[in-house]
Specification:
This protein is an alpha+beta fold. Helix content is 39%, strand content 19%. It has 3 helices and 4 strands. A 4-stranded mixed sheet has the order 3-2-1-4, with helices on both faces. Helix 1 (5-19) packs antiparallel against helix 2.
């Protein structure tokens, strides 16, 4: 994983503030692999309850995490009962690292 302990803690804290303590976070993509360089931060946010305005929440989480990581680009996927799941959700869960 190519995040520092403090970066991972900041991401968890922000996600918990926004989605509650039961949120599950998965880092996937190039940042989940220590053999690669560069890349944005790809996060899967799994929430057990329906989320109102999921696009707005994803954008807010992306912006807050980006600020915490000094402007690094952050992409956010959300998994929640009121949204359809796609192949990328399965790939993220299988290849990612829990934060």
């Amino acid at each position: 994983m190519r995040l520092t302990v403090s970066q991972a803690q900041a991401i968890r804290q922000i996600a918990q503030e926004m989605f509650g303590d039961q949120v599950r976070l998965t880092l996937f993509g190039s940042r989940a692999r220590s053999d690669l360089k560069g890349g944005d931060v790809d996060l899967l946010v799994d929430v057990s309850a329906p989320v109102n305005e999921p696009a707005v929440m994803m954008a807010r989480l992306s912006a807050r995490v980006s600020r915490a990581l000094n402007g690094r680009k952050v992409d956010v996927l959300i998994g929640t009962p009121n949204l359809n799941e796609f192949a990328i959700h399965k790939i993220a869960r299988q290849s990612g690292i829990a934060l």
